[in-house]
User: Fold these one by one.
Assistant:
Number 1:
Amino acid sequence: MYSEVFTLHSKLLKALSNPKRLEILHLLRNSELTVSSIQKMLYLPQGNLSQHLMVLREAHVVATRRKGREIYYKIAHTNFIKASDLIRELLIKQHKDNPQMKELTRNMTDLVPLTQDPVCKMRISPKTASFVTKLNGNPFYFCASGCYKKFKENKEKYLKTAQI
Ligand SMILES: [Zn+2]
């Protein structure tokens, strides 16, 4: 029985063992999202995203719900969020002497309770944002790599509408 649990555990970790899939998990921590929103936030080709979602679904990391034409994805169990937060916390500690990580965590823990992704307008907390960048001294937080990339490509446009 023990070995069976280890096998199941390693299968689950295998399903999670991809930066994009971890990003999807992180993205879904606050809300249920449709495939098209996830796609926009990650800036991934549809086929590529579908594959990642399938792996996560087969591992029962995410659950789906159909509403009309849309399929909504959510995290199947809050323990996945807890586990990923714990690992993230540990990684930040382990890499605390890395100057890049230092800057990142400093921005992540700025005392802003809730902010808005300037690209997709999702409400996010700085602690759990996937990306952060500073512009003119103001931090901007992003739900995922897609929004961060779009922001970098078109700063002027998003700066005009951003809440600071
Ligand atoms: Zn976003």
Note: The helical segments are 2-16, 19-27, 35-42, 46-58, 78-94, 99-108, 145-153, 155-161.
Number 2:
Amino acid sequence: MPKLLVALILLLLAGCGPVEVREQRALDGETIQVVATIGMISDAVERVGGDRVEVEGLMGPGVDPHLYKASEGDLRRLERSDVIFFGGLHLEAKMADVLERISGQRATQAVTDAMPRDRLLTPAQFQGQFDPHVWFDVELWSFAVEQIRDRLAALDPGSAELYRENAASYLTELEALDRYVAEQSRRVPARQRVIVTAHDAFNYFGRAYGFEVRGLQGISTAAEAGAGDVQSLARFIAERRIPAAFVESSVSPRTIEAVQEAVRSRGWNVRIGGSLFSDAMGSPGTPEGTYVGMVRHNVDTIVGGLLG
Ligand SMILES: [Zn+2]
């Protein structure tokens, strides 16, 4: 082989960087070390990756991803990992710098990358950004599962068939879940299909299953609700005689209780219809500690709350 060609090949190989080195090592049958941000992503990676992956989730039950900052321990986990899956669309707003920096050293994947942009919502209060709460449209979330499948297969082609099989069986479960949510939602008469919560996590849910959604804090919990927001939401609830509002597991119930109080002073009584899982799943080992379980819990709570 001519010397120049050898030099060129060596140069090309040297340019591949640490990500490719890790991708090569994963081929040797080692378990793939995955770090995921929110629980819904951890769950999907575990389902698709099976025994081939070891998943460390950064954000547990009740943790708000909009406000979450990476700890020292998280940084070490990220640096040790083979691949990092995150939501993207500014969901992990306070981790943007860390994720950007680590992307130079580790394989990183936003699970929303393959979602068709025309299916993403851009509500006015998000000021031109996409709404990141895509997991509440179960069909849309299937794109995230496919993205995880494809990235794992690229990192570890030897197990690609396993990832395809696992993903196919999980996607079948998600199709059944999507049908369940649609069926349950239809039990609520159309004019009563209103979800009032503390922050705007449910826009995708609303679009997919036919609910009007009213939140207090806008897209991210980082923006505090003002007194004017509380009053205008209270007026809406009293005028529409909405029977129930909902609290969320990862957001303080204080704001929605303030709304309840303001509604009462307008001569209407709105119940707290229950607690919804919005940006985090329930405790591990409980039904709500999985994506399927949290979505079922939410629709059951919403339908039960609105039907009284
Ligand atoms: Zn949120």
Note: The pocket of zinc ion is lined by residues 66, 133, 199, 201, 221, 278-279 (CB under 6 Å).
